[in-house]
Amino acid sequence: MADAKCATGKCEDKTITYEAVKAIADNILSRIKVKPVIGIICGSGLGSLTEAITNAQNIDYKDIPGFPVSTVPGHAGRLVIGMLEGLPVLAMQGRFHYYEGYPLVKCSLPVRVMKVMGIEYLMVTNAAGGINPTYKVGDIMLIRDHINFVGFSGNSPLRGPNDDRLGPRFPPMTDAYNPALITRALSVAKEMGIPDVVKVGTYCFLGGPNYETIAECKMLHTCGVDAVGMSTAHEVVVAQHCGLKVFAFSLITNKSSLDYEKKEYANHAEVVAVGKSRESTCRELMCRMIKSIAAERGSSGSADCGCTT
Ligand SMILES: O=P(O)(O)O[C@H]1O[C@H](CO)[C@@H](O)[C@H]1O
Q1: Helix H segments across the chain?
Q2: 224 is a domain residue
Q3: Angstrom distance (rounded) from CA 256 to CA 67
Q4: Residue 106 maps to which CATH number?
Q5: How confident is the model over 12-57, as pLDDT tens digits?
Q6: Residue 23: what are its φ and ψ, rounded to 5°?
Q7: What is the pTM of this model?
């Protein structure tokens, strides 16, 4: 895959060219039976969101030239393409994290591939630690906004020469998380009878892979963060840059420590286990959101949402 050099030729991150993104998009499109409209990224332990997809075709990341491969437990490393609630979808069972060693431009490459494939909506999920002391394990936080701590230092997936075919040089991030989709998700939560479980808040992206110190959690709380994780923001920056409509939610898999008297010890096995224990609720929320998008577009969704309640 041809990578363009940065302006000085000394940057550790390289820009992935439009042509390289298109080659991957064309490769995937040549192998699948539908043209996806919705892209889904499954967070840690949330890969089973794809189980409601019918007529599914699977493509392992390792079989897509130029695509990264997943290295994290709970991230299977494949695309699942098929129909969900009347719409063609492409779901990623596994995402790429900065701490795996990939530059952010590579972590978010699949989002650009989705755009070039013709996808219009990006649905992102993640597992996150609850900084907001009112949040409980198992709650679902609709992401209204993010704080991209990794980006504060200039580490951005948009760093390097800009190709206007992928988006503008200086994209705004206001409403990066589509407000109408958040409003709709709140109605869906009511329909599902889980309004108390569903919150709206701010996600913070840290580089990881270590979990946060208590002092860091206290600082994040002061900064207005509700949930913390090691993903999502770079994907959403790229999605907003290239004009995808984004809906995202965090599953709160553990409580973050804000108090030396009440220490919490996060671990990934627990994160994945909580994901699995909440998979049917997360899947139903996702399915109902897609069903409502299908209805809005005039595509016929199935009579029931096809999800386990
Ligand atoms: O954000 P996702 O991929 O859901 O995973 C979250 O879970 C892992 C830590 O347990 C980290 O990768 C964190 O970002």
Answers
A1: 18-29, 104-107, 109-117, 149-152, 179-191, 214-222, 233-242, 268-277, 279-297
A2: yes
A3: 33
A4: 3.40.50.1580
A5: 456 899 999 999 999 999 999 999 999 999 998 888 889 999 999 9
A6: -60, -40
A7: 0.93
Out of 100, 235, 279, 284, pick the active-site residue. Answer: 100
Give the closest residue (by CA) to ligand 1 atom 10.
268
d(CA 65, CA 92): 16
Residue nearest atom 12 of ligand 1, based on CA coordinates: 230
126 lines ligand 1 (CB under 6 A): yes
In a domain, 307, yes or no: no
Contact 231/96 with Cβ under 8 angstroms? Answer: no
CB of 50 shorter than 6 A to ligand 1: no
Alpha carbon distance 298, 292 (integer Å): 10
Measured between alpha carbons, how far is 248 from 232 in angstroms, rounded to an integer? 8
How far does the centroid of ligand 1 lie from the alpha carbon of residue 30, in Å?
A: 31
Q: Are 140 and 197 in contact (CB under 8 A)?
A: yes
Give the separation between CA 63 and CA 133, rounded to whole angstroms. Answer: 43
ipTM higher than the 0.85 cut: yes
User: Can you tell me the distance from the alpha carbon of 188 to that of 77, in angstroms, rounded to the nearest whole number?
Assistant: 29
**Rounded Cα distance, 163 and 38, in Å:** 23
Q: 199 to each of 136, 176, 183, 194, how far by Cα in Å?
A: 10, 18, 11, 10
Total number of domains in the chain = 1
Ligand-binding annotation for 233, yes or no, is no
Asked, for residue 205, whether it belongs to a domain, the answer is yes
268: annotated active-site residue: yes
Q: Known catalytic residue: 48?
A: no
